[in-house]
Amino acid sequence: MAIRLNGFRCPLSSLRVLAFLVIAIFMISSIIIYNSTFFEQSPSWSPQALTGRIENVDDYDASCSGYSVGRILREQKRILASVRSELVESQTKIEEIRAVQEELQRLIPQKQLELSALEGEIEAAQRHLEELREIQNVRVFLPYSPLQIKSSGATLLPRSSSLSFDSVIDYSLCSITSFMPVYVEAITNGDMEKEWSVAFRNVAPHLTEESDSACIKIRITNGVLPTESVSNEILFNIGESFGIADDLKSIVVQSSNLRSFDFALQVVRTTEKSEPVPLLPLYRENLIGLVIGSNHKMLDVSSLEESFKKANHNRIIQKCYQEKTECGPEITKRIYASSTFCIILESDDFLDNFMTSLEVGCVPVVLSNTQQLPFQGLIDWRRATYRLPIARLPEAHFIVRSFESSDILEMRRMGRVYYDSYFADRETIARSLLAALRHKLLIPTKETRSSLRNQAKPLFNSTFTPPKGTVVPVQPNYDDEYLLGPLESRVESTSFAYNFSEFQLYSYDTWNTIFSPHRSKEFIINSAEPPAESEFYEDTRSGFRPIEPGSGVEFSKALGGNRQREQFTVVLLTYERDTILAGALERLHQLPYLNKVVVVWNNIHREPPESWPSLHVPVEFVRVTENSLNNRFVPWDRIETEAVLSLDDDIDLFQQEFVLAFRVWRENRDRIVGFPARYHARYGDAMYYNSNHTCQMSMILTGAAFIHKNYLSAYTYQMPAVIREHVDSIKNCEDIAMNFLVSHLTRKPPIKTTSRWNLKCPTCTESLFKEDSHFDKRHECIRMFTKIYGYNPLRFSQFRADSILFKTKVPQNHQKCFKFA
Amino acid sequence: MQNVRTVLAIGLFLPGAVWAQNVHIERQPCKMSDCFDFSRCSSSKKLYIHPMEKRFEEQPQSQIYTKILKHFQESDHYTDDPNEACIFLLGIDTTDRDIRSQNYVKNVPEYIDSLDPAVWNNGRNHLIFNFYHGTFPDYDDHNLNFDTGEAMIARASSSDKNFLKGFDISLPLFHENHPFQIESQLDEGHTKNEGSRKYLVSFKGKRYVYGIGSGTRNLVHHLHNGEDIVMVTTCKHNNDWQAYQDDRCQGDNNEYDRWEYDDLLSNSTFCLVPRGRRLGSFRFLETLRSGCIPVVISDSWVLPFSETIDWNSAVIVVAERDALSIPELLMSTSRRRVNELRESAREVYDRYLRSIQVISDHVLKIISKRIDDHFKQQHR
């Protein structure tokens, strides 16, 4: 830094000046002394004197720069103040930052601890996962080689014999038009034989007392082989199995010692129908239950036990050949009830064990490829059991462990359904046997549409139709554009068309899907559909109503679809709402594809008015004996079509909505297709019925729904009676019961059509619906039906069906399929 | 702390290619006696410019170098025979050696390799012009990214640590629209004693919220009193200044707009010339041109033509750490001294810095004087 102040010049040296200076100094000093004596105490050359003289620092320009000292000082002070304040600010900021830093510093060790703890947890979890994987990984063991299987005991192979089914049946007695007359006889005497006898008599579709003309002679015996054998004879052995000579001409029904055409059936059983074990929960205490009889005492199960121990699964291996081991049917049942899978070995008790296993919901693992299962040509046991050769016993653990949980549940469910449908009690067994015989002999039962059970009684003395008909004012049911549909003449659906094809083409469905092989069928729901273009060939043309190419207009002129044309029957249940009923009937006038209207008159205590609206189709009133809601699901013989539109009397829908639903139903004949959607939901611990708006439904109320007539039969004859009784006792839930039934049989949800949610006509006031207890009853129904079926068969659906061009922009020359649907 | 953070943040964007191209060459500590071939200059001091080839031309040559070369070519010293020449110049533009700059010429090493080695002679007798060296963040790397060999470097913004005294030549920084040629203003009889100007000292410029060069500029706001000391700064530089602004920026930016730059220059007695990113700045010449006495705050900067000019008589040099005492210092400067400084500054500017021609000529004059001194010494 270079500061240059003013410099002094050197004074000149001369004598004159010197003298002058001396005088000057003298004078100056005297003045100073004078000043200090008279004015000041302190010497005047001191700094205080100097500063005292200067009145104002601002005047003093020390460096001749134009800036006084005062000014400079002030400027510096200002700068200092500015710097100081910035310093203070910075210090506060530093303090803040330091506080933050300290906080972070403090947190660091804590976070590090947390981090290491988390890392430890992750490690532990990974180790645990590895362990679990280890456990799940069941080791595969080598199967037995033949030498290792030592099983003594009578061979249970179906023995080949010189005889066959056809050689022991005299077909001349069993013509296809004979309806299979059955003659029932008991050879031995006893209570059991009597009970069986009664059972057969009750279930035989065509009973005869003449043994000579009978196609089938049922001879009930208790372990006693009759001396002479006759043809067409069924030896129903309810006792110990007896050995059969190769040339025995009877067909034997017992649990072992069978030839290929004999029937394997376990009949030494208590016949009380037990409540089904619930389907869920899936896993039971033991994974596998195995009972080893004395004929398998050489069987080496060590590898099985080892495999289980390793995987930490529970199993029971009951070695009944050992002393002091509890054995017996009760023990077996208990063991099976606590196991998920039951390994069943060939033995005399095989069928008994097999049935027990099905009854308690344990999936049978049959360790035999040769053991005959009941009706195994008709019932597809692969859906309910798993067959393994006995050599694969060491691998059995691995195999059963590999099943998906839904597969295990399905097998358990099917096992229970088969059991309930064919083996549950005496009458069921008897019926199943006769049905199996019929199937083998290809003999249909004698059927007409009306039988004792569903014959409708006319309401009006002798006629179904009311004596007086009022003319319904013709409401134009069409837009200016097009008709809703053609009003053709009435046509009934072809019935009893499958009398013989049922035994073969449809036998699988009959035995394994519909579970009703006992009578010849009026209709088959999913019968084969003709291939496309059938309608254009001369010989397959009849019955078709093909839709011409085009859109809405052409669509309305014909039914189209993949099948021949058909119509539907409206079934209306009415009680105490005559005017409302009349309105409902009027709204059905001129409805295309309507075949007939059947009104079930539940007002058993009074006679109907005589005058009713007269429609383009007959309106028939059916008299019933009880005011029961189940009446709407009786397969009345007056119903002549496969399609049934079950309606409440207060439903108000557009005709086109019915037509759309009918068309949808034609493509989904095995499902309920309708309008009011409901669902079931769990709140807390229990299941509840729910009627609020939803995006996922599981039921369609039968107050407005299309159902196949076969389901009416199933509801009335096949469904457990206790459900119908419950419906009667609470006067509610028949629609829930129907939904449970259909979902149970098809394993599919119903289909909702159109966007309609509330269907009640605006002026209709009275309804069962309004009671408070209505919903309580329905919640209870859902829970009770679930218990009866052993599981909740309802299935969810998340979509609804509308016509193809619904809410679609169509070009000018096209029309929508329906105006509102 | 914010500075470190921002520097780090910006540092993350550095591409690796930058380092790849950084050729670290240690420069020889040259002296005229070691690295200059005086024998070539015994008869005449001719100047040869290596031709520039099309294949090396990546982009148009910078205006400044073009003008310098143009001036030399048109001068009497110019010869196109390298054997005759005493001093050599490169045809390729070496003025901007900031790797990140758009004007950076990449293939200087290739150009030099292409020269006749007998002529290039490892840079002996060559004069290399450079105005910008180094790059973000500290701009301190005096390396030119090519081997200059024994060449003299006429450079701006040099630090005295890297400057080869007596060998290199320090240049001022100027815009490309600095007058190429202008008449001397000195003889036009302007008043010697101007009288006091409105402002004692002023500064209007960027503040650089982060990074090198922001130290002094960030504290000048203390000195601002709005009357006779005007120090206004703006935070707005680069596109990302808003991310790094501090609490003062808003107020500073507003105050900044109240004052006119040229108005301040011509109405201030002193003008603050702090360093920017680099040690030198355009501001130095601008203040000299407007008759304002520069107050240089740039530690270790080698002022332009320090070999010939005694700057202490024309400018005030203040250490960066003493910046806050500037008002006191300036207010204590006598009027007489102010006039002296002003006069000297004006004279220096006019004689040595007023145009590109003058600057270029003076560079040659410096070298010429060295040559003459050398021969004088030899004859003794």
From TrEMBL, chain A:
One GO CC term, this protein: endoplasmic reticulum membrane
Membrane-topology annotation of the record: Single-pass type II membrane protein
InterPro entries from the UniProt entry: Exostosin, Exostosin_GT47, GT64_dom, Nucleotide-diphossugar_trans
GO molecular function: glycosyltransferase activity
Start and end residues of each Glycosyl transferase domain: 568-806
Domain of life, source organism: Eukaryota
Subcellular localization: Endoplasmic reticulum membrane
Chain segments annotated as transmembrane: 12-34
UniProt main location, coarse: endoplasmic reticulum
Coiled-coil features, chain-numbered ranges: 87-135
Pfam families found in the cross-reference section: Exostosin_GT47, Glyco_transf_64
Exostosin GT47 domain segment(s): 319-403
One GO BP annotation of this record: heparan sulfate proteoglycan biosynthetic process
Keywords from the named record: Coiled coil, Disulfide bond, Endoplasmic reticulum, Membrane, Transferase, Transmembrane, Transmembrane helix
Family under the similarity heading: Belongs to the glycosyltransferase 47 family.
Protein name per Swiss-Prot or TrEMBL: Glycosyl transferase 64 domain-containing protein
Species per Swiss-Prot/TrEMBL record: Caenorhabditis nigoni
Automatic annotation (TrEMBL), chain B:
The protein, known as: Exostosin GT47 domain-containing protein
Gene Ontology biological process: heparan sulfate proteoglycan biosynthetic process
GO cellular component: Golgi apparatus
Signal peptide range in chain numbering: 1-20
Organism in which the protein naturally occurs: Caenorhabditis nigoni
InterPro entries assigned: Exostosin, Exostosin_GT47
UniProt-listed PANTHER family: EXOSTOSIN HEPARAN SULFATE GLYCOSYLTRANSFERASE -RELATED, EXOSTOSIN-1
Gene (name only): Cni-rib-1
GO molecular function: acetylglucosaminyltransferase activity; glucuronosyltransferase activity
Domain of life: Eukaryota
Assigned keywords, A-Z: Signal
Every Exostosin GT47 domain range: 43-332
Entry similarity comment: Belongs to the glycosyltransferase 47 family.
